[in-house]
Design brief:
By secondary structure, this protein is of the alpha+beta class. The chain has helices at about 35-45, 45-55, 65-70, 120-135, 150-160, 185-195, and strands at about 15-20, 25-30, 75-85, 90-100, 105-115, 140-145, 165, 170-180, 200. Bound molecules: coenzyme A (COA).
């Protein structure tokens, strides 16, 4: 059942980070009261970004899709959001999520960052946070599918240590990363400083 976990038990996963350009953002787990923010976020994406994320040129957001996006159980299905505060209003600027596949311990990754906030390090920060969380949930492998035209995601995946391979039958790139394999010094170093984005508060990020 969605959101059956006590949200306050996830407080240690709420953290503040700084984007490459110095904006302070909050990275936190998706909450049950985020539905309207999630809808506003998806609707705010350019057609290109939405297509890259959802693989379909959506003209409107169907209810079943938003239900699916809000359906996290904090174990098999998890989402982290990056938010900014505009006065009293909290807005999503990025979302990264995983959903466990029918193979135990293997989950599929999805990520999107608002167009105006891309290339600020937010996608990297969200995925790194998601990876830390996934490991604690016993997820040992993350995979994802990427459209061939999506050079941004292919470059980001490579930078975060995913292997990237072309699947001609599907005309898609498959990205894949083991989570319990010790990271190379190089990747670990990149994760700490990637894109100039950084942590500004103690919390779960960075470890
Ligand atoms: C792919 C996406 C999530 C990247 O998020 P982001 O926050 O912009 O990425 P980051 O700023 O963390 O980028 C980290 C690194 O990834 C690579 N990268 C990111 N965007 C890139 C681009 N447009 N072109 C080339 N490399 C890119 C770079 O190596 C970058 O580091 P650098 O800026 O220091 O060179 C974002 O472009 C997006 O939301 N796209 C639309 C939705 C989508 O494609 N989702 C993925 C579906 S699987």
């Amino acid at each position: 059942m969605p959101f059956s976990v006590d949200i306050s038990s996830l407080d240690r996963w709420v953290t503040q980070v700084r984007s490459r350009w110095g904006s302070v953002l909050c990275i936190r787990p998706l909450r049950p009261d985020d539905r309207e923010r999630e809808i506003a976020f998806i609707n705010s994406l350019s057609e290109r970004s939405r297509y890259f994320r959802l693989f379909t040129p959506l003209k409107f957001l169907p209810r079943h899709l938003i239900d699916q996006l809000m359906d996290v159980d904090y174990r098999e299905r998890m989402a982290f959001v990056a938010t900014t505060q505009l006065g009293d209003i909290e807005q999503f600027v990025g979302v990264a999520r995983y959903g466990e596949t029918d193979q135990a311990g293997i989950a599929e990754l999805g990520v999107s960052v608002a167009d105006a906030w891309q290339r600020c390090g937010i996608g990297s920060l969200l995925i790194q946070q998601l990876i830390r969380y996934a490991r604690e949930q016993g997820i040992h492998h993350l995979t994802g599918q990427v459209l061939p035209a999506n050079q941004a995601m292919i470059a980001l995946a490579r930078r975060l240590g995913f292997t990237v391979s072309y699947e001609p039958a599907q005309h898609l790139f498959e990205i894949s990363r083991e989570l319990d394999v010790p990271q190379s010094t190089q990747i670990a170093a990149q994760e700490g400083v990637l894109s100039g984005a950084s942590s500004v508060a103690n919390g779960a990020y960075p470890p």
